[in-house]
Amino acid sequence: MPGRRPLIVVSNRxxxxxxxxxxxxxxxxxxxxxxxxxxxxxxxHEVTWIAxxxxxxxxxxxxxxxxxxxxxxGSPYRLxxxxxxxxxxxxxxxxVANPALWFVQHGLWELKHEPERDLTEDWERGYVAVNExxxxxxxxxxxxxxxxxxxxxxxxxxxxxxxVRRRRAETAIAHFTHIPWVGPAAWSVLPPRVVRAVxxxxxxxxxxxxxxxxxxxxxxDCCDALGLAVGGSLVTAHPISVDADxxxxxxxxxxxxx
Length: 258
Description:
Oligomer: single chain
Low-confidence stretches: none
Strand content: 15-25%
């Protein structure tokens, strides 16, 4: 887009995923509210979207390199899929991100299975390893487009901003968390090194975003409890809405009305 800097969007799930039907590759819309919320970005920016390869066909596409795609409104964007080590991804997604971070941040830790499991190894060999793979993909894209801004998303990517910042001090980086943030006491159930890495990772961003002022304040309280200076990071509360026009169009689509 003229006058706008290129944007590298990074999320675990991409806007689409691939499958194979009758011998042909087909694209299917990605699941989840994050994809719905971020979809309109491609109509306003020159976007490269980096996401995990989740299906067998995704992994084939990842090996082939970035793909030029088109959004529902006709806007072009570039999709880059990252094929993670299966064991690392399992630890990242099925041990740390969803069963630990998500439960802590929703105040549901007491309902979690195996709450006493030591997450240290899973954190290093899973969560950090996958974040490193994402950061590596971002750094390669920044070689291609040095002026691009990087926009990380959600609880899957808390340490990636710091990993990119170490190599690209000048890059504009933002992170938006799409789930609640809780205070210091709630985080205390996790290993201290994990808690510190989460907050230090986010503070490597120029902008740290949350949906509500309460969650923004909880993050700042945690940083204060950890002795971490916010420094030059702008910590904001800006709720993300859905694209109402897209939902209205979907409501009248053949797939819904059939």
